[in-house]
Every structure is written in structure tokens, then in C-alpha cells.
């Protein structure tokens, strides 16, 4: 079977604010069709790395390749073309509070397409139905629960039919049931749309439920100290920081029934590495 191709390639990336280095020498790939987890402790630069990947913050050094094209070396018009392939769900949902859900989802369509108003309304209804919010077009974000706001933000992220989805702490602020439903929705979207997904999260249940590949950023080492299938890392990685993070210090804690769920055929591809050793999956 032909291995999946790399969709995102990060090479020798250094993240810094002025002279303060957050992470250095980051090199990894995200394969097409993966649900790729960026994990690590507080202050390790997880969200900052996401901003580098989506074109919001330039790296101090290194490259971000999207399907072989260098995002940060590209001309402005080529950067915009690449970004059109992205769908981004920010931690707070990122909805405009003064707009209805329909207006929020329609915004990227009105900005970047030539669809007529009637066509835009049809696409908006389709995207809201896709995330389980059919009939909520006229609602304002303040009238929705936190989980529904996240799903509405996801509908807007899907407006332009992206094939690369980015999520920043999608389950933050959600109760366990809402978080589990969002995980299930992410899996469904990956399967139905064939999207590649990159998720920043510290939620163990989400990590083990949806992720099939990952990197672990360490704030002290300022680099990647483990990579691979998070379930395999939990069982085999000898690094105490990684093991403690993935077990909350006690094996099997906080999994929200994740061990009984499989995110799909991408589980267990490739190799896993932790520290200087390589652990076959």
C-alpha cells in the first residue's frame, strides 16, 4: 500500500518573540488525511505554532511547506491562494456577536466568491446542517450554548470547502458530553470530506479519540521531544514528561471512553519516536 503523502512539511522552524525563543529546530510532517495533534504543557508554544502554520505569524527561521509550496516565501497573492485552502476554528469560536449564524457563515463566501445571494443562502444552510445546526440561521451566538457556538464556528470554517482544517483547543470550555460530540463531528468531517486536520489540544480524551499522529512540544527543551501515534506514546515512550502528560500521572485517567473508539484507517501508520530512540508501531 502506498504511504500517504506529506501535506504539511515543517523544516528547522524556530519560533521567537524578539530575542525570546519559544521553540527551535521543529521538523515534522503532517500526512494527507491525518488528524494530527500538537500537544504539550502550558507555555510550550502550541497555539503559536498553529499561527505559524496558518500564516498569521512568520517564523524566526525555517520553512512551512503546504503541499510542497513554501508558505512564508510565497508572493502575497500565492499566500492568499494557499490560505483559501484552510479552515480555522479558534479557541473561542471566533464568531461575530453582532451577526446571526447565517451572516457569520456567509462572510467568507461573500468575501471570496462570486456566489449570488440565493446561492450563498443555500451554502450557508448546508454548512450549518453539516454541523447539526439546521434551522439556527437566524440565531445570534449569545443565544447558543458553548458547544453550539463551537459547531457554528466550524460551519464558518467549512464555508469555502477547505481540505485542511486547523483547530485551536476545540474542546476548551465545553462539558464532557459536548466535547465528545465535537470529537465525533471532527471524525465524521475527516471521513466525509477527506480533510487533513491539525488540532492543538491538551484534552486527553480528544487526543486519544481523534488523533493518529502527534508531536509533543516541551517548554524546557524548547523543541519536540516525542512524535507519533499518541496511544503508542502513552504506552511506550520512556520520557517521563510525555508519559506523565499522557496519563495525568496515573495510567488510564481522563480518557472519556476514548480507548473504545478508533478514529479510522489512519490509526497506527508510520513510526513513533521519543527522545533519541525510535519505536515501531
Strand and helix layout:
Elements: E1 6-17, E2 20-31, E3 35-40, H1 46-53, E4 61-66, E5 69-70, H2 76-83, E6 86-89, H3 101-112, H4 117-130, H5 146-157, E7 164-168, H6 176-193, E8 196-200, H7 204-210, E9 213-218, E10 223-227, H8 230-236, H9 240-247, E11 271-274, E12 277-280
Parallel strand pairs: 3-8, 3-9, 6-7, 7-8
Antiparallel strand pairs: 1-2, 1-4, 4-5, 9-10, 10-11, 11-12
Would you kindly provide a brief summary of this structure?
The chain has helices at 46-53, 76-83, 101-112, 117-130, 146-157, 176-193, 204-210, 230-236, 240-247, and strands spanning 6-17, 20-31, 35-40, 61-66, 69-70, 86-89, 164-168, 196-200, 213-218, 223-227, 271-274, 277-280. Helix 3 crosses helix 4 and helix 4 (117-130) crosses helix 5 (146-157).
Q: Can you walk through the features of this model?
A:
- With 281 residues, the protein is an alpha/beta fold.
- It has 2 domains: 6-85 and 162-280, Rossmann fold (3-Layer(aba) Sandwich), CATH 3.40.50.300; 93-161, no CATH class.
- It is built from 9 helices and 12 strands.
- It has an 8-stranded mixed sheet with strand order 6-7-8-3-9-10-11-12, with helices on both faces. A 4-stranded antiparallel sheet has the order 2-1-4-5, with helices on one face.
- Strand 9 and strand 10 (223-227) form a beta hairpin.
- Helix 3 runs parallel beside helix 5 (146-157) and helix 6 (176-193) runs parallel beside helix 7 (204-210).
Amino acid at each position: 500500500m502506498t504511504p500517504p503523502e506529506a501535506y504539511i512539511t515543517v523544516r528547522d522552524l524556530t519560533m521567537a518573540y524578539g530575542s525570546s525563543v519559544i521553540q527551535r529546530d521543529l521538523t515534522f510532517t503532517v500526512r494527507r488525511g491525518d488528524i494530527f495533534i500538537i500537544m504539550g504543557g502550558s507555555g510550550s508554544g502550541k497555539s503559536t505554532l498553529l499561527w505559524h502554520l496558518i500564516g498569521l505569524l512568520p517564523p524566526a527561521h525555517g520553512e512551512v511547506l503546504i503541499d510542497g509550496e513554501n508558505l512564508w516565501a510565497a508572493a502575497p497573492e500565492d499566500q492568499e491562494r494557499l490560505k483559501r485552502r484552510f479552515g480555522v476554528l479558534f479557541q473561542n469560536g471566533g464568531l461575530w456577536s453582532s451577526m446571526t449564524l447565517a451572516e457569520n457563515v456567509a462572510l467568507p463566501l461573500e468575501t471570496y466568491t462570486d456566489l449570488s445571494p440565493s446561492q450563498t443562502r443555500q451554502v450557508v444552510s448546508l454548512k450549518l446542517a453539516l454541523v447539526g445546526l439546521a434551522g439556527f440561521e437566524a440565531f445570534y451566538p449569545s443565544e447558543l450554548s458553548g458547544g453550539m457556538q463551537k459547531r457554528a464556528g466550524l460551519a464558518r470554517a467549512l464555508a469555502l470547502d477547505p481540505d485542511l482544517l486547523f483547530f485551536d483547543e476545540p474542546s476548551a470550555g465545553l462539558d464532557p458530553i459536548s466535547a465528545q460530540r465535537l470529537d465525533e463531528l471532527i471524525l465524521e468531517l475527516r471521513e466525509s470530506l477527506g480533510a487533513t486536520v491539525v488540532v492543538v489540544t491538551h484534552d486527553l480524551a480528544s487526543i486519544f479519540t481523534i488523533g493518529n499522529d502527534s508531536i509533543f512540544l516541551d517548554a524546557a527543551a524548547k523543541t519536540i521531544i516525542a512524535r507519533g501515534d499518541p496511544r503508542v506514546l502513552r504506552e511506550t515512550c520512556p520520557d517521563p514528561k510525555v508519559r506523565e502528560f499522557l496519563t495525568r500521572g496515573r495510567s488510564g485517567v481522563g480518557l472519556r471512553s476514548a480507548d473504545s473508539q478508533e478514529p479510522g484507517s489512519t490509526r497506527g501508520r508510520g513510526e513513533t519516536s521519543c527522545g533519541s530512540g525510535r519505536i515501531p508501531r
